[in-house]
What we know:
Layout: H1 2-12, H2 18-31, H3 42-58, H4 62-78, H5 82-85, H6 87-103, H7 107-118, H8 120-123, H9 130-151, H10 154-157, H11 161-170, H12 177-193, H13 197-208, H14 217-233, H15 237-252, H16 259-270, H17 279-290, H18 301-305, H19 308-317, H20 321-334
Helix pairs in contact: 1-3, 3-4, 3-6, 4-6, 6-7, 6-9, 7-9, 9-12, 12-13, 12-14, 13-14, 14-15, 14-16, 16-17, 17-19, 19-20
Amino acid sequence: MALQLYGLYLKIGFVRNEQDYRYVREFFNARLPQARFEELDFTGKVYFCQAQVWLYHICQEFAPCYRHAQRWVDLFSENPAMRSLHPVFYLKGLHNLLSTLFNSLHDERFFAALPQLEHYPQQVDFSQNRNVEGLFQLYSHIHRINAIYLSGDYSEGVKYIPELVELLDSNPYNWDANRILVFQYRIACLYFGNGDFGHAIDFLNKIINQKTIDYRADIQCFARILNLIAHFELGNTDLVEYQVKSVYRFLLHVEDLQEVQREIFQFLRKMPNTRPNALAHEFRQLHERLLPLQNDPYERRPFLYLDIISWLESKLTGQPVKEIIQQKSKNRQKR
């Protein structure tokens, strides 16, 4: 069941509308084995949790996804010896738990769970197992970046980039092109959040200039949009006007283009011809149109790739993006 759901995810990605949602739920219910959780053995319980996590991950239902990911990790807390017997299961459980907490912006729970991943090498010696070591390194870097996104501490975050770039260039764990591409986008977002638009463009160009672009259309799309925003920030008005046409041609071939992406692109398309004294009005209008989409279950995914709301608020208030994100993090923790 878990493998079938993973295959479904590779085929359709996240649900985009009510029709997708019904299809995934029917797919799951038609194939779910009849078994009581309490009667399963340890690995059976892990696979049960894994299947549930995949279901709710695809449907972007973060609350039940969190509950099953936590249940998955709790199995190893109740059976500590299994951490060394099934290291891949344990690492994937932690990864899914942290990813769900990040996606749902639960800062406090995320930072409380992160040490479980960071301290794993102190509990189990996997130095002779290249596959497990590679998986640990992969998840460690993913969630190290997620921690920066949540806290808004981009100034410290960019100091870590050379270490990550060196790892990606040498690629000792043979991470595939998809993994490399996602890291390149995440690095660009770190630079963007720190106000270093030139370096952000350098890494976005690595994605945009790829010869093979038949995978991760979501990242490909947002790399181009973020690239336009970065050039806009640098005052490259003529270049923005030129690149808008290229981005428009690319977006025409994206089948699942979402409302968020359309709104941002239409905004950028108007920017070169907008008078300076009208910019604030345009920023405010886009902010008002995007805010309701944050809570739309089929539209909120793009906000995980690009915190466009915080960028707009920085343009309206004159504050750096990272300061706005840091304040939002403090407000969430207070709540």
